[in-house]
Amino acid sequence: MSDTVADPRRELAHAFLDRHAPGYDTLRAASSDASNRRYWRAAYPDGQTRIVMDSPPEKEPVAPFLDVHARLESADLPVPHIHARDLDRGFLLLDDLGSETLFAWQAEAKPAERATALADCRTQLVSLARVETDGLPAFDTSRLTTEMQLFDEWYRTGHLEASWSKTQHAEWQVLRDRIAARLAAMPPVFVHRDYHSRNLMHHAGEWAIIDFQDAVSGPLAYDLVSLLRDSYIDWPGEWVEREIDAFWGQARAAGLTDASREAFVEDFAWVAVQRHLKVLGIFARLSRRDGKHGYLDDLPLTWRHLQWALDRAPELAALRELLTGLEPENARD
Length: 333
Known about the structure:
The chain has 333 residues and is α+β, with helices and mostly antiparallel strands. It has two domains: 8-95, Phosphorylase Kinase, domain 1; 102-331, Aminoglycoside 3'-phosphotransferase, Chain: A, domain 2. Helix content is 48%, strand content 14%. The longest helix is centred in the last third of the chain and has 28 residues, at 261-288. It starts with 7 loop residues before the first helix and ends in an 11-residue tail after the last helix.
């Protein structure tokens, strides 16, 4: 254990392991995410490994993680087992699911394997949507609006330094509120909120789910949008259309919706517009505020996904017009 550094949280992680799972050889950084959480990998002499989730309680309380974890585990969905916890200091000891995300795995997989994996994740979403939602936060107009404002504050104003007139800004507010109202009125189900390729781990023949602590009760199409219109993978268009159809059929059979295919596809498009506006704002904020500039590389694909969604939401033609000229610099010819 000579690999200590001047990092108070790391020292606390060592102390947590010494209390709950002593005898490890090394504790090394495993990964971090777009939040304040970090993950450490503890390696033991017998080859076993465990993950320490480091979630500073003043910034990222672990209670929501534990609540949603219990819901998913009760539904027999693949999530890492919790071996020990320290809520006061913000540490959990978890199964090590490895480092092979769907994003990493699919980059080396054959097309047929990629298509099968995408279909497997889509099928898992039907079970996910049926998870108990009692007590979860609602994906209400306030939350939806706040998310879309990230686009205005961090992407348009902060990143692009683009100006709008008072008239344009008033039009943005009307369109933003219209989108929020439309999504908030959709029948609610369990929503992971970040069901994408970097939060799905290839482990023991399944796609294990991580980063689920921000779950809400919201639109059925939301997690499907996160999967199929991923900001990190540009899935083939024909696969996307096929998986939308397949999910709609499965969801109807499961009693999750009675919407027509046309109505569901329209919901999917509106949800996609909201999510992509939010993600553009989040990526810009991660760069400007947190110094995580690599996320700027993901702006062009997110922008293209936004245009795809606007193509399928003709009632939002005014928004497409308003956004003209706001494409990322690294997506311009």
